[in-house]
Amino acid sequence: MAFKCSCGRFTVQKMAWTEKNAGRRFIACDDRYGGCGYFELVDPPLATREHTVINRLLNRIKVMEDGHMRGIEEIKGHYEKEIEKLQQKAVIPLYVYVIFVCFVLFMVVNAGSNEK
């Protein structure tokens, strides 16, 4: 149930994911950074066992997400190196092309001067 807090904004109901209150619903001022700071826990404290299980599951999720991100960073680094190698290889044919065009122009100019 939303109601207006002392700063005139509507309150919102959310779920806490801090270690101390993981899994507990709370009502708070919708303006987190400039509001009145209203905060009220809706759910009663969890039993010790529930609290421990939720925090362990949250830690497992964090470990898996961190491992997943490390894997993504490794893959990203690998492909960045591959892109760099391909970009370096692409520069060499450009030099060859420029030299070839200069050579052809030189031959055309020399052929024209030999005919005179």
List the helices and strands and how they pair.
Blueprint: E1 11-15, E2 25-29, E3 39-41, H1 48-115
Antiparallel strand pairs: 1-2, 2-3
Helix content: 55-70%
Residue fraction in strands = 5-15%
Label the structural class.
Answer: mainly alpha
Total helices: the number is 1
Q: Spell out the helices and strands N to C.
A: EEEH
> Whole-number radius of gyration?
33 Å
Average pLDDT rating: 87
Order of neighbouring strands in the sheet with most strands: 1-2-3
Structure commentary:
With about 120 residues, the chain is mainly alpha-helical. The chain has a domain at about 1-45. Helix content is about 60%, strand content about 10%. The chain is built from one helix and three strands, in the order βββα. A three-stranded antiparallel β-sheet has the order 1-2-3, with no helix packed on it. The longest helix is centred in the last third of the chain and has 68 residues, at about 50-115. The relative contact order is 0.08. The model has no long low-confidence stretch (mean pLDDT about 85). It comes from Heracleum sosnowskyi. This is GRF-type domain-containing protein.
